[in-house]
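Hi L.,

You mentioned the student needs an example of a multi-chain input paired with its predicted structure. This one should do, with 557 residues in total across all chains.
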Amino acid sequence: MMREKVAQALASDVAPTLLALRGVGKVFSNGVTALSSVDLTIREGDFLSLLGPSGCGKSTALRLIAGLSTPTSGVLDWRGGGSLDRANIGFVFQEPTLLPWASVFDNVWLPLRLKGISRAKAAPAITQMLARVHLTGFEDAVPRELSGGMKMRVSIARAMVTKPRVLLMDEPFAALDEITRFKLNNDLLELWQDERFTVVFVTHSVFESVFLSNRVVVMAARPGRVFDELAIDASYPRDEAFRTSPDYAALCRQASDVLIGAINQTAGPHHDGH
Amino acid sequence: MTAIDESPLTLDPEEARRVRQERFERTGRWLLPLAIMILAICLWDRICVWNEIPQYILPRPGVVLQTLYNDAGLLFSSLLVTLRITFLSLALAVIGGVGLSVLFAQSKWVEMSFFPFAIVLQVTPIVAIFPLINIYVDNQTTKLLLCAWIVAFFPILSNTTLGLNSVDRNLRDLFKLNGATRWQQLRYLRLPAAMPYFLGGLKIAGGLSLIGAVVAEFVAGATGQSSGLASRIIEAGYRLNAPRLFAALFLISLTGILIFLVLSLISHLILRRWHESALKQER
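Structure written out for the whole complex:
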């Protein structure tokens, strides 16, 4: 079985490398060093969280991976040697970022529409994707008629409708209330386990990163850099029972200690940690 | 039934007062201006009677209405001429304004280079430009159209340009990520995003195209070349025919109000599902 194979590969750490960042740095035009020589290997099928205080360059790293920005030093080495193929990337922003004038259906259609696929031809994929994020029946609603959680579901459906190999998420659930966030966490994990794409998930929540990921990469600020990495060895599927388990609590504690270390390591006089 | 079952429907005095206030405001919104308008017309009539003002200086409202009826053929055929210029120039203003703003949106350099020309056209009084147009353009309709267009196109151009440039940054990134072409970004993102701005400009341009048409006719009418409402006003002025002058004025303002209302309705219908400006506030 495919899934067993991937799980095995994950366990033995030999899943093929999808993307390697080698000495990647980014200096903005105003002289701020957002990232400084980041080395990071992302493996096929990873659910990798970038965890860190604000200013640690985690969002910058995500934008570099997406190709929305170019590194000032170092290379991004995609498997197969070439540069990235944008068709293989889905991106979820911190805000839902939907077209306010378009219906839910048409919002999810957008990436396919931009590839020249007609509404009728795209319909089965859209309907299926909306069902996956539990939005069946809301096809004709416009974004302002939806709650924050539902808007985020539309955003995820839109990112996933092209069946990308990599899903990049930039603090997607930060603005949601806890109950909604838990639900979306569960649904996202379910989706990931079924489809086995690779996720790079930016967050500042220890609890969220531990619950979701198999790898947590902790970053430190000023300059933004990789501080440490934690393997989260708990098995999938993870559900509400995992959320209340002692294992989860211990892992959170561990990750939290590393994060505190990263915050204390922050160069400069302002380690206020926000 | 217990008392508890009945109580949820009763409002506390504070809330009840708010609801009453709201109801009063709702009817007051149209009743009050209407009452004041009627009062003003009555007062106008009385002032004419009390001071025995002759009809050629200030006609009574009833006489104006009578003239509107008696001269209907003449006045409405003139109105039609003015309306034709107004709507044609508005249509051209939409095409020109949107077309130019799309062109401007292609590059900051194009916008920086050509926007000053649009501003020059806008700030120079049309009455001062007309003699030039009169020399260069032969066709009567073309002359009037050009004048009205110059007055009306600017708000559409400046508003639509602003709208095309105020697209959400993340949405732009999303289009980039999905490999959207320039045309796709314009068609599916920037034009729809500019719609509320464009409609705001259209509402202003609607009124301005009427003003432009009437002003152009005035200048042209002074040389006896026009048959629109403005020429009726000039003619009536020469003949001290104040009732007809008032009747023509009434028709012009009525037209302006109708244009505004129709454009507001169109704007509301297009934006009502998604734009903040058209949403009903729920408390």
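You could point out the following to them. Residues 1-6, 268-274 of chain A have pLDDT under 50 and may be disordered. The two ends of chain A are 44 Å apart (CA to CA).

Best wishes,
N.
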